[in-house]
Amino acid sequence: MHALPMYLGLDLRGGVHFLLQVDMKGALTKRLDATAADLRSLMRDKSVRHAGITRERDQLAIRFRDAEMRNKARAAIENSQPDLLVTEVQDGADFKLAATLKPEAQKRIQEFAIKQNITTLHNRINELGVAEPVIQQQGADRIVVQLPGVQDTAKAKDILGRTASLEVRLVDDENSQNPAVMEEAARGQPPVGTEYYVERSGAPLLVRKQVVLTGDRLTDAQPGFDNQTHEPAVHLTLDSAGARIFKDVTRDNVGKRMAILLIEKGRGEVITAPVIRTEIGGGRVQISGRMSTVEANDVALLLRAGSLAAPMEIIEERTIGPSLGAENIERGFKSTLYGFIAIAVFMSAYYLIFGLISVVALSTNLLLLIALLSMLQATLTLPGIAAIALTLGMAIDANVLINERIREELRNGATPQAAITAGYERAFGTILDSNVTSLIAGLALLIFGSGPVRGFAVVHCLGILTSMFSSVVVSRGIVNLVYGSRRKLASLAIGNVAWK
Questions:
Q1: Amino acid 168: pLDDT
Q2: What pLDDT, in 10s, does the model give residues 7-31?
Q3: Measured by CB atoms within 10 angstroms of the end CB, which terminus of the chain is less buried, N or C?
Q4: At a CB cut-off of 8 Å and minimum separation 6, what does 98 contact?
Q5: How many CB atoms lie within 10 A of CB 97?
Q6: Exposure class string for 453-462: b at 16+ Cβ within 10 A, else e
Q7: 116 Cβ partners below 8 Å, 6+ apart?
């Protein structure tokens, strides 16, 4: 049948559960920093002279030396940045614009941040090879992550919590070669528009704040080795726009140094700062610099999966061992088995042959349900096993209705064959009504529920469909097989009295 085994949930297989808090203020800060870079490009394109663009808490401050330039800049910003609310501020002798994000833009950015983080987490976990992870939003700013089968919690926490993104910037070569300037920069006073870093080789350098290229332009990142030094490296592939930008920057800055930074948790690290020897086209870039093979693999995974739109921290962590999961499976299996046996004994004793037929139909229902779960590759959880046990009770309820209806027809003087026909046809309406109402409740749980509730709802809805089929079609087929060919049927073994 080519059936596949069902995926087991966290409570049956063991694994780890994380609750992550998304830093919504961090998402807004990141957007403001990106907007500041866009405004610098805008001012340059529009030939607007300014005295600096800086972020001050939750707003951008743009300074000018005269009112004319300020007015020109405001018009340009309002035309190109509809998400910004721009106001004029007089700060001493300076003419200043204060730009803040509009409330509707803040809400949209925060909603995008949590969706982007969920997408990024999906990509990272898929790279880890975890089968059927659960990644869901909880509330306005939290994400639940469940990783069945994962026992290396340290590795999982490291991959989930890291916020790696790539930035390409130019090195301020002139000031980097000035010992006096570098000494001041090392004490925390770098020249305006630069930042002080130390390469992995230990050499200090000044990197310009203006970002030339970001990791958003990446289409792929794979670990590998440097062809010349044979050191571990990460090979990057840029999209068409990124390749064009990189080609233009390398063409215009031959002989200068370019710094490739890895930004994690708000802190940047210069991975490498090579000298640009020639124009680099084709969109293929290599970064290397005293990396280990493991680090190259991790960096490639993070860059390939995409960066997080906002920082996150783990505020809750639970680990379920595989032994506890095996115990849950055993208990769930026993409860279902004992429930089935109890139903089979009762039905056989109370309805005799028709009771045995009902038990066979119930067995078919259980087989169909498990087959569907296998075909759909649904994740089975402990609530899902509870739903299977509940399905057995609901499925046998339909057969009870049919059997009692046949008894009633026999009491009213109908012949055995007529009683069978009337019993199935007249009980069908009641069975359909009860199952439809149960299905509506199950669909509501499926749509609005999450986590264990959703797992219960999936099995519950499938169980209703299979029970409708088995209780009506399968049991009717078996009854027809047993009694259908007997034209002159004298009696039916359907409990306490064989009606004649």
A1: 82
A2: 777 777 778 888 888 888 878 887 8
A3: N
A4: 59, 60, 61, 86, 87, 88, 89
A5: 23
A6: ebbbbbbbbb
A7: 306, 308, 309
